[in-house]
Design a protein that fits this description.
Elements lengths: L3 H4 L7 H28 L6 H16 L7 H24 L7 H5 L1 H21 L8 H20 L8 H21 L4 H29 L1
Helix pairs in contact: 2-4, 2-8, 3-4, 3-6, 3-7, 7-9, 8-9
Length: 220
Amino acid sequence: MGDLNYWINTKDYSTAQLVWNGIGCLFWVVTYAALLREIIVKKYVEMPFFIAAGNLAWEFVWSFFYHPNTGRLFSLSYQGAFLLDVFIFYSILKYGYKQISVPEIQKHFKWIAIVLLVMWIPLNYFFVSQGFDTAIGANSGYILNLIISLLYPLLLLRSDPKNFSETVAWFKFLGTGCISVSMFLIYPDNYFVHILAVCCFIFDLSYTILLKRKLMNAAS
């Protein structure tokens, strides 16, 4: 417990790798906290419901079944994000139907969201157990991140931009961006993650600019 490597794995990772990854994880925890604040104020969940279920499942798997080998401190950040995401998913069950324009889907929305969560949990678990992931969940995490980056602008384009937060957009962009830097440092030969990281950067930056423009147009 007193060993530094128990809290931060400086044996297998360099300082630069840990700092970039740690800052990115912290930004994502702040993203979730900001998102929760927006939900309380606006009674609307801006995170697309499909990926909200995937996010919660990923954090559940990496909080209780597996743990990143970057150290206990990083594991706690995963668990902190999981706790925040529990409240986000609860809000999805409460307000997520507002993302949907089809009455029949709205009618059964809660069950759809729950089924999605149940589906995502074994997908994430077996992705790791069958050896497709890295020791910190990079492969599965970036698959989910790319889906987030794709669905956010699609939801924005068919919704009121006032329901979306620039603060959330920027922290999401910075969080993924910092973690992406660490991916290039930690996994210099993992071109799969590199491509996903670059795609996320392009989509996240485009989304942030698009949101800014839409909010400015809505205010004018």
